[in-house]
Amino acid sequence: MAEGNGTKESPWVLKTPPGTSEYTLYKDETRDPAVLVCQVGTTTLLYDLGCINDLHAMLKVHGDWMELGSADEQKEAKEGTVEAWGRSPDNPLGGWYGLKKGLRGRFGMYIPPLMEALGLAEVEHKPKGNRMRAI
User: Fold this and answer.
1) How far is CA 122 from CA 1, 17, 66, 134, in A?
2) Is the pLDDT reported for residue 91 higher than 90?
3) What is the mean pLDDT of residues 97-118?
């Protein structure tokens, strides 16, 4: 379980799937759309808050492990990965869950550990090639 409760005052403190970096996430429901604010060092990323329920629902339908495939916005996401789904015109949002232009990628790096902390998914923690599945 992650430290914190997901507020700005007490953000979730998480580690990337390989366990190499720590970062924080919290909900900001005052924004439209509501967002997850992801702080990685001095970099702030924003993800649509709906990604949690949408990703969980997609993984339930998928029914098996899915590779994370994290990639920066400027790089192509490997097909069939969580990252590719998080930017696909076929997802419920119809595109990027990342909301900050230039920093919309890395969905497959920062959202899966939150899903695990919330008890919605299992996430592998190997040096590379990690996968996740719904619980």
Assistant:
1) 12, 11, 11, 6
2) yes
3) 97
Tokens (6 digits) for 115 = 């899903």
Query: How far is Cα 112 from Cα 4, in angstroms, rounded to an integer?
Result: 17
Alpha carbon distance 104, 18 (integer Å) = 20
Mean pLDDT of the chain: 96
Residue range 16-62, pLDDT digits in tens = 999 999 999 999 999 999 999 999 999 999 999 999 999 999 999 99
b/e per residue, 57-85, with b = 16+ CB within 10 A?
A: ebbeeeeeebbbbbbebeeebeeebbbbb
CA-closest candidate to residue 2, choices 97, 132, 126, 110: 110
Among 53, 59, 15, 18, which Cα is nearest to 34's? 53
User: Helices 51-62 and 107-117: crossing angle, nearest 10°?
Assistant: 90
| DSSP string computed for 91-113 | STTSS-SB-STT----HHHHHHH
CA distances from 34 to 8, 48, 60, 77, 99 (A): 13, 6, 23, 25, 11
